[in-house]
Design goal:
The chain is mainly alpha-helical. The protein is about 70% helix and about 0% strand.
């Protein structure tokens, strides 16, 4: 990694700079390595704001670095991504990657006990997820269960019991989602 960083230090290639920040972010998140510097995060934010169209590459960079950003800034940028999702849904284009970024952010907000922000994103994204995106619909349903479990008066979604959702996920043969949702339920103290 150090050799790669040294090689990129004098490199002005935008994609190489973005990749370096993303790799640092992943290393910090997964391996407890140092996070990108404040200057690198500012560079990243400036890049995101100039995105007129969020390409797969841009979404990948955002999805792997968003946790570094201030929650309010994340929501503002996600609103731009949601505009992309709405346009792609209208055109029949696959929207799974950007939808998953929004849903992953909902779960990140749970981990920081920011339930109201999570709920705001649930309300925005729920109506635009295409019916055939079963994984995403089930993942979002898990988010609603977590919200209701947190505060039934504040979050009044009609949801199945957690064990019913887990059985449904099992029926869809989505072992990856089953593992994710099981862990999220455990993290939130849901039996």
């Amino acid at each position: 990694m150090n050799d790669y960083q040294s090689e990129l230090a004098d490199n002005n290639n935008l994609q190489d700079q973005l990749n370096q920040i993303m790799f640092k972010s992943i290393g910090a998140h997964e391996l407890n390595l140092p996070e990108p510097s404040a200057t690198e995060i500012e560079f990243l934010v400036a890049y995101f704001w100039q995105c007129e169209y969020w390409s797969h590459y841009d979404l990948t960079i955002f999805g792997n670095t968003a946790y570094l950003l201030d929650p309010e800034l994340r929501v503002q940028l996600l609103k731009e991504i949601i505009k992309l999702i709405e346009a792609q849904v209208a055109q029949g284009i696959n929207t799974r990657d950007p939808i998953r970024i929004v849903i992953n952010t909902i779960f990140d907000f749970f981990h920081s006990e920011n339930y109201q922000r999570a709920d705001n994103l649930v309300q925005i994204i729920a109506p635009i997820i295409p019916d055939n995106d079963v994984f995403e619909k089930l993942y979002l349903l898990a988010a609603k269960i977590i919200l209701v479990n947190h505060d039934q008066l504040l979050f009044a979604y009609k949801v199945p019991r957690p064990e019913e959702l887990l059985k449904l996920i099992e029926l869809t043969d989505s072992q990856g989602l089953l593992k994710i949702v099981n862990q999220e339920f455990k993290d939130q103290g849901i039996a």
